[in-house]
Amino acid sequence: MFDIGSFRAATCKGIGRRSFLKWGASVPAGLMLGQPQILHAAPAPKAKSVIFVWLWGAPSHIDTFDPKPNAPSQYRGPFATIPTKQPGVHYSELLPKLAARSDRFSLIRSHVTSQPGHPDAGTVGLTGFEERPEPVQPNFGAIVGKHRGHKGSLPPFAMVGRGIPRDVVRKIEGFGGGKFGKAADPFMVSCSDEGRVEIPSLQLLEGLTPNRISDRNEIRARLDDTLRQLDRASMSEWDRTYQRAYGLISSPQSRAAFDLTQESPSTRNNYGQTTFGQSCLLARRLVEAGVPYIQVNWSEYVECMTPNCDFGWDTHIYNFELLQDTHCPIFDRAFAALLDDLQARGLLDSTLVVAMGEFGRSPRITNRAARDHWSRCYFSLWSGGGVQPGRVIGASDKYAEDPLTTAITPRMVGTTICELAGVDTQARAELKVLEGGTVIHELL
Amino acid sequence: MKREISPWPQLILASIVGLGVFSAHAAEPIRLTSDGHVKRDPVFFNAQRTELLYVLLEKPAQLRLMKLSLVNQSTTPLHPTETRSEFEPALSVNGRYLAYVQNRGNLSLALVIEDTVENRTSEVPPGGGFSGLRSPTFAPDNSCILFSYPEEGRQQIYSVDVQGKNRQTVIDSEGVNNWPQFSPDGRQFVFSSSRDNDYEIYVVQSNGSNPRRLTNSPGQDIRPRFSPDGSKIAFTSNRDGNYEVYVMQSDGSNLVRVTNHPERDDYAIWDPTGTSLLMISERNGSFDFYRTEVP
Lengths: 444, 295
Fold this sequence. Notes:
The complex is a heterodimer. Helices cover 29% and strands 15% of the residues of chain A. Chain A is of the alpha/beta class. Chain A has one domain: 3-Layer(aba) Sandwich (Alkaline Phosphatase, subunit A). Chain A is globular and about 70 Å long. The N and C termini of chain A lie far apart (46 Å). The two termini of chain B are 35 Å apart.
């Protein structure tokens, strides 16, 4: 493992510690997108960057942003509601920080998706299309990334998380470039609760030490060795990779984008000493560095309580305990901090922030006193980047089982994100993506 | 109809003072650890009460049982080679038995009971499908272990013996019943229940009879813990808009707010003297153990 940079440490509590950017070993696919694919002149996008917060595993809508306090006990659960900044609009008591900031974002309560299982719904949620028939469509981030191309040495589509989102059976097929190819896959980066950043896809420089970062000849030699081991078919891909990887590794500006220790302790504290909190902070730094699209994954696995799985939102058991003790407090703090931070830095107007999962959870409490999958109704949060804040769009029925208003689909989500990020109707047509998608005009 | 709570602490504070709830002005809590990692579920681990057992989110995919020395603040894993998540530990009063929840498979969790004298392990296995037991607690005489378990859309409280056998239903009501703990004399136990909408604290006889509601507030009143002499109950409540630790007499009277901070104070356990509480508090986004006096 090659540790790039040695950053003075500063945990959230200011305790000194050394941390490194760790660069790992395979093709940095997210670095290979090449030149921008802007095929026609278009106005400047309202959203220079997008942060897409992927609440993988599917949070319960009725226990969070769409509570039904008057529903029978077998639906409403044990949580009370709290008022928000919007008269008559209530959230669950588990989200006090976001309730106090509800004028900074809009809430959609009428999402539906076509798939009831995680990987399938994950692909729909990230691409707007089902996995079959092939080809798999590109992640919204891959579309934005392909349209925008690179800015300097940083990737156009970054994914902050422990790995490609998956369940215990398989990965989401629609996590990345899809029909655009691996070159459009996201640049993967992970972040620990102490803000230690690792980039697992760049492990080709194993064995180099931080003090050799300035020795460009050695880096070049290592890369050349790696290249010689590749077959001819992979060579052209590596030629591009070489340039991008070298640029990213050797650029202090790019390296700095991944260095959370450059943040003040108070800023890091605001996000919370959690993997998700520090990941949101890293996303904000990538926005500042000009990365067009950053997807922040809550977890790698959907499962909420399974060995080797990282506590996703799939709360078939322990729904109420996990929401109360960990998931909602962590999300409430980190997402509120992200909105505060972007606003304080003057970035919120030019950064679209979206948070959602792949579906909701069963409004009727299950036999195991928890909630199962529910594709018929769920929520999303939207802020900045051209979105009008403070709106509640759509409504669900009395038990939060189905929308009472027009259903809003993942394809509409992707179309709206792309539209705000500058991938307009013509650009989408030229890229042959999101066909049939419509913009959620109530957000604008 | 469910009640609504306000997120605005200052308004709530003003209102609860009017209701006869007193805010403590004890000394600032003393910080005992500094690693800041997510942690939960503390219990005293040895007879001298110089060591805690708690749960650490050691890495993104594992909750680990850890021992914390209150003498030198050193920490060591209880089961160093364990790769599955273990949490919600409970220790018998005489220290012979240890119980905890262990993740056995996909959304499947068992209750493990270790007999440290006989060096024997018993268990209450997970039920069928997705299921998990939670919140074990021992009767003072080790006659039974209470735990919470969901069935038929409700979450009940059951008892088993220390071999994990002779399962009986103790609390059977609507809603979620959780976090049971016996009084020191073993005649009663407290728990939280959502049977009356949101979580409130109840006390019952040891066989589950004669339930009495001890709290009546908007929001959650959870994780009740009897003081060593049984005269008081500490618990967590978000009635002021965020999670704070409160203490009341065991009949529900004389409610006192012990902590007062915009961030979370939770998982309070009593010091053996009954004069202070150890708790896990969030400060500047980090989670550590603190000790605070009980006024």
